[in-house]
């Protein structure tokens, strides 16, 4: 269930925002939306000056700063903050943005965000389910808009297909991979992140976790065998890394899927 994999922490709307934000995010993610006005925005030393209807993310890693642009008295601001394993899945799938993005003209994103904020104020289970559904729908809309504006270089798509659809090596030789595309490892890492918004090693880890979830649910293989299939020589390291990315150990994840009726093999 998605509401077991995502926790929505808070949300807000300020019609005339003038606040200043400068911080590292620790363990949570946000989507910010400006409907009108202007903002100066920084990720570490990367600077954006945005006006009008824009979205921008904040996430663990960069030092993010934003405040009103000098030519504006304020801006109309909405935001939502959340955390959980589902975010990593969104990032792997390319749904979570990693840089500012203009809102598509003609779409009433105010109404979308206001409905989202209304649902998270509810105290029942259904409000949270609806909020997660609306948030994922918003991220899908934004990802589709990005895809329409950007065509991935062929080598990027080849690497994505290798890790997600082929017979992936979950412990890839980055030196060999870089040489096959006539670039250095540092260039491979930089250009992959620029094109996808995700570090290549982080993407490989997310593919590992996705494959681990499938093996845990659809097979009765022991943990040691699953770890070996995923390129781990140490089952304890596999369990710890799975826990770090998913929030529970592989054993607990498998048991939880069994209890919710999701397994696809006969349990002993």
From TrEMBL:
SMART domains from the UniProt entry: HTH_ARAC (SM00342)
Domain HTH araC/xylS-type: 177-256
Alphabetized InterPro entries for the sequence: Homeodomain-like_sf, HTH-like, HTH_AraC
TM annotation in the entry: none
The keyword Cell inner membrane appears for this protein: no
Keywords: DNA-binding, Transcription, Transcription regulation
PANTHER family the UniProt entry points to: ARAC-FAMILY TRANSCRIPTIONAL REGULATOR, HTH-TYPE TRANSCRIPTIONAL REGULATOR EXSA
Protein name: HTH araC/xylS-type domain-containing protein
Organism encoding this protein: Ktedonobacter robiniae
């Amino acid at each position: 269930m998605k509401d077991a994999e995502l926790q929505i922490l808070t949300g807000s709307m300020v019609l005339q925002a003038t606040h200043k934000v400068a911080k590292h995010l620790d363990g949570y993610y946000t989507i910010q939306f400006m409907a009108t006005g202007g903002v100066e925005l920084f990720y570490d030393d990367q600077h954006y000056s945005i006006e009008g209807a824009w979205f921008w993310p904040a996430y663990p890693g960069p030092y993010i700063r934003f405040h009103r642009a000098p030519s504006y008295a304020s801006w109309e601001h909405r935001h939502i903050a959340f955390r959980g394993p589902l975010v990593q899945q969104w990032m792997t799938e390319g749904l979570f943005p990693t840089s500012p993005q203009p809102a598509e003209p003609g779409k009433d994103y105010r109404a979308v965000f206001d409905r989202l904020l209304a649902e998270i104020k509810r105290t029942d289970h259904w409000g949270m389910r609806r909020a997660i559904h609306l948030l994922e729908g918003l991220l899908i809309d934004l990802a589709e808009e990005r895809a329409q504006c950007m065509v991935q270089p062929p080598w990027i798509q080849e690497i994505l297909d290798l890790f997600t659809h082929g017979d992936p090596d979950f412990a890839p030789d980055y030196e060999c991979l870089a040489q096959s595309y006539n670039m250095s490892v540092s260039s491979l890492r930089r250009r992959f992140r620029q094109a996808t918004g995700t570090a290549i090693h982080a993407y490989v880890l997310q593919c590992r976790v996705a494959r681990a979830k499938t093996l845990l649910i659809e097979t009765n293989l022991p943990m040691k065998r699953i770890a070996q299939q995923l390129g781990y020589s140490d089952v304890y390291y596999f369990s710890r890394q799975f826990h770090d990315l998913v929030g529970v150990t592989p054993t607990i994840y498998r048991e939880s899927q069994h209890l919710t009726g999701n397994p696809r093999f006969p349990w002993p």
